[in-house]
Specification:
The protein is of the alpha+beta class. The chain folds into two domains: 181 residues, Periplasmic binding protein-like II (D-Maltodextrin-Binding Protein, domain 2, 3-Layer(aba) Sandwich); 216 residues, D-Maltodextrin-Binding Protein, domain 2 (3-Layer(aba) Sandwich). Helix 10 packs across helix 11 and helix 19 packs antiparallel against helix 20. It starts with a helix and ends in a 6-residue tail after the last helix.
Length: 446
């Protein structure tokens, strides 16, 4: 009581009284992929360097993350200071004015940038994919393309040899020959989990290499085209005949687990998995993993996707400077060195910086590195299909409507995976879904 009276007296006579303020809390929403879990584990290291900033984390599965972040940013709610977004979202959100230009923030808050932060060190295709109108709008936490992983022990025991550039037909033959479910060994694991960024990430590359496409030049859906039907039938049959069971519950994380436990002979998915599959602390099969390029079909392109999970700052954030301090720390060369020295160089975030691939420590720890860099550099979102298309993207269609269309079609396709309907029926329904949504969006008249 005496302290309160003293305080009131001091204020009454005009004496300035200061109150100690705690650190500014910024809220970061991210995906529960392994690299992001590692990022969260270094919270103490960041806060020790920046005691005026505290980190609050929201970590969600991929599909939930996309829905939560899109809703929050689109409605201007302002819940998050840092959002995890991909190559699909960045140009669209930048055009909508939902995220800041990083170039503008670098100029406005130079003291918030991590020392020696070198934007020119970013791998060109990754940097280009995160730019809009020539300006960077997000910084990449890790970048990826796609590749084939296989269990070298199982291949050697069966007398099989994986080519550096396999075809999907070869993958099918290998998988079915090695499929032994009675002994807990599956020929292949592939994503079947509904979601435009889950099952349709690998499946769209199969459609590309079989000569299919999502839309023609007039934005007419092409899901019932013979090439697309053939590609999807191939994928669904391969999964059901020679793959891990329960495909509609298998996304990236579930597939990574099966491959790392030695239960799958082949996995075609994101290159980012290479570091985890070869890490003895994270993979039981760490010394049995081989690498090849992503398979091709009759068309020799569209098999290498391009993606970067990245950090962006919403224009609704009340703590922009603090958010910039964090995102440049988490995507810096210093952060990569921190992970390398703490967890091993094979597990550093890949696919973002040229300097990572020049480090002798990384080259020694990551025998897959040259193959990954080649896949990223070969990926061409502007030329991923046999026939002309009006969109940009390898494993996605770079328009806002695709998030809804891809997810809705994937949910129908799930019925074909479990045998409730045929692939042809699923694609016919999906084609109508796509056309209706495109018409509603004004691409053409109903």
């Amino acid at each position: 009581m005496k302290k309160l009276i003293l305080l009131l007296v001091l204020l009454a006579i005009g004496v300035s009284v200061s109150f100690a303020q705690g650190p500014t809390e910024i809220t970061i929403i991210t995906v529960n992929n392994p690299d992001m879990v590692v990022m969260q584990s270094f919270t103490d290291e960041f806060e020790a360097l920046h005691p005026d900033i505290s980190l609050n984390w929201v970590v969600l599965p991929e599909n939930e993350l996309r829905q939560r972040v899109t809703t929050d940013v689109a409605t201007g709610t302002g819940t998050f200071d840092v959002v995890t977004v991909g190559t699909f979202e960045v140009p669209i959100w930048a055009e909508n004015g939902w995220i800041f230009s990083m170039d503008d923030l670098f100029e406005e808050f130079p003291d918030a940038i991590q020392p020696n932060y070198n934007v020119d060190d970013l791998i060109p295709p990754i940097r280009s994919g995160l730019s809009f109108d020539g300006e960077l709008h997000a910084v990449p936490f890790y970048g990826e393309s796609s590749m084939t992983f296989y269990n070298t022990r199982l291949f050697e025991e069966a007398g099989l040899e994986m080519p550096l550039q396999p075809t999907w037909e070869q993958i099918r033959e290998f998988a079915c020959q090695l499929h032994d479910p009675e002994n807990g060994q599956f020929g292949i694991v592939l994503r079947g989990l509904p979601g435009w960024g889950e099952v349709f990430a690998p499946l769209t590359t199969v459609i590309n290499t079989f000569g299919g496409r999502w839309f023609d030049e007039n934005w007419e859906p092409q899901l019932t085209a013979p090439e697309t039907v053939e590609a999807v039938n191939f994928y669904v049959n391969l999964v059901n005949e020679c793959g891990a069971p329960g495909a509609t519950g298998i996304g990236f994380t579930e597939a990574l687990t099966l491959m790392s436990q030695g239960q799958a002979a082949i996995w075609v998915d994101a290159t980012v998995a290479a570091g985890f599959l070869t890490n003895p602390e994270q993979s039981e099969a760490f010394d049995e993993i081989g690498f090849a390029q992503a398979p091709v079909g009759p068309v020799d392109k569209g098999n290498n996707w391009l993606w970067a999970w990245s950090l962006a700052i919403p224009t609704t954030s009340p703590h922009v400077e603090e958010a910039l301090t964090f995102v440049t720390w988490a995507t810096s060369q210093d952060y990569i060195e921190l992970v390398g020295e703490t967890n091993g160089w094979g597990s550093v975030p890949p696919g973002t910086r040229i300097s990572t691939y020049e480090r002798p420590e990384y080259q020694e720890a990551a025998p897959f590195a040259p193959l990954v860099l080649e896949a990223i550099e070969d990926a061409d979102p502007t030329d991923a299909t046999r026939d002309p298309v009006p969109y940009v993207g390898v494993q996605f269609v770079g328009i806002p409507e695709f998030q809804s269309i891809g997810t809705d079609v994937s949910q129908v396709l799930a019925e074909a995976f479990v045998g409730n309907i045929t692939v042809e029926e699923a694609l016919a329904e999906g084609n109508e879904i796509a056309r209706e949504q495109m018409a509603d969006a004004g691409y053409y008249d109903n």
